[in-house]
Amino acid sequence: MASMESLSSILSFTAVKFPSPKLSPMASTAPRFPSFSVASMTPAQRIATTSKRSAKPSKTVSVTPPSPTSSTTDSSSATSLPPKKVLVPIGFGTEEMEAVIIVDVLRRAGADVTVASVEPQLEIEASGGIKLVADTSIKTCSNQIFDLVALPGGMPGSVRLRDCEILQSITSKQAEEKRLYGAICAAPAVTLLPWGLLRRKQTTCHPAFMDKLPTFWAVKSNIQVSRELTTSRGPGTSFEFALCLVEQLFGESVAREVGELLMVSTAANESRKEEFNTVEWSLGHNPRVLIPIADGSEEIEVVTIADILRRGKVDVVVASVERSLKIKASQGTRIIADKLIGEATESVFDLIILPGGIAGAVQLNKSRILKKLLKEQKLAGRMYGAVCSSSQVLHGQGLLKDKKVTAHSSIISTVTSQVVNGAKVVIDGKLITSRGLATVTEFALAVVSKLFGHARARSVAEGLVYEYPRS
């Protein structure tokens, strides 16, 4: 059962520490890193690996506990139950950060998540330009029973969801039978409200749509749980939203464990970023950024970086190093790149950013074209960066020599001795690195700040509903 105290404790933990691998960082096969998922753990293992810690209730979370249902269960009984089934519908204009983070987090917790398109085709273009491929059509879901239906927001994505009669029927039945359902960003006001599914329920949504909600029931909180309904505010609160849903489905200990794996943290001693050897990144033209991706890349990182940079008015190109434009990311999300990496050689990029993912980093490292581009980037004095495990690729090309960096704790000791502890993002001259996963929002905003200034980054953060310093 969700509570203010238990949800707050999830968000207060520091990242879990993984043992460093003993393999060569540039091995041709995937290093045996720990899995970033608790899905394979038994409930007893999940509880055993999670220590009890206390935390003050978060002031940004307002919770009315849901009534006990078959969908809300303690993890101690999970072994006798089938996997929790979750439906995440998407359409043209769905907010990609919200959709991908919800799917990613729930899958890491062990949920059987179905991404269903409300469009005639499975491929959709999200609000920020990322192209996603659904698992199935919403038509195939009409007779299924789900433990949770979670609606991402975005415009016009929320309208596309609202106008889907099959989805309306599924969600209405979900509410009638007292099973869990949720919505984020514009979806509470644009989708659920016209369906009559917000009656007598305290609700929150994106600030731009708060005036659409019934005044008496509108609540300005990052997370609002009102019986079976959970609502949230925007891309910047997606991790809180998804972890709250995990807690209701699987229990507090599983939600806490997933939060640790994702490095969701509000630790007071953790800085947003540290910068060394400061140089200007501002340009006299619209910045062009290349994000190479591969099978096994971390979808949270790919989508968050691309979405935030595009919100900051950066020209972003997502390029596949595979033979196909379509890649399957680490948690099963299928993404369609803008072009193949070979086509990217026709352009000059001001910044190249490598997303993480263990298998993805291995694939990136196999690309001769990408390695050539990285060497040229360094020689030309242009910017480059990496998040999570992809710092290994830069290390293999000698691009981290004498640089201060951060990376995922499982690989940091294999790539450099100049580790900056306690920072989500580290900038050293024209190199920027991050620990990855949930810290990638700070990474992307730091890039926007370096390219355009703090005011632009803060403006983007406000649109995300993400807390960001004024100066």
UniProtKB/TrEMBL annotation:
Q: Which UniProt keywords apply?
A: Repeat
Name a biological process GO annotation: glyoxal metabolic process
Sorted alphabetically, which CDD domains does this protein's record hold?
Answer: GATase1_DJ-1
Q: Could you tell me which residues belong to the region Disordered?
A: 44-81
GO cellular component terms, semicolon-separated: cytoplasm
Keyword presence, Repeat: yes
Q: Does the keyword Zinc-finger apply?
A: no
| Low complexity biased stretches | 57-81
Q: Where is the DJ-1/PfpI domain?
A: 84-248, 288-449
The family this protein is said to belong to: Belongs to the peptidase C56 family.
List the NCBIfam families. not_thiJ
UniProt-recorded name of the protein:
DJ
Please tell me the species this chain comes from.
Answer: Parasponia andersonii
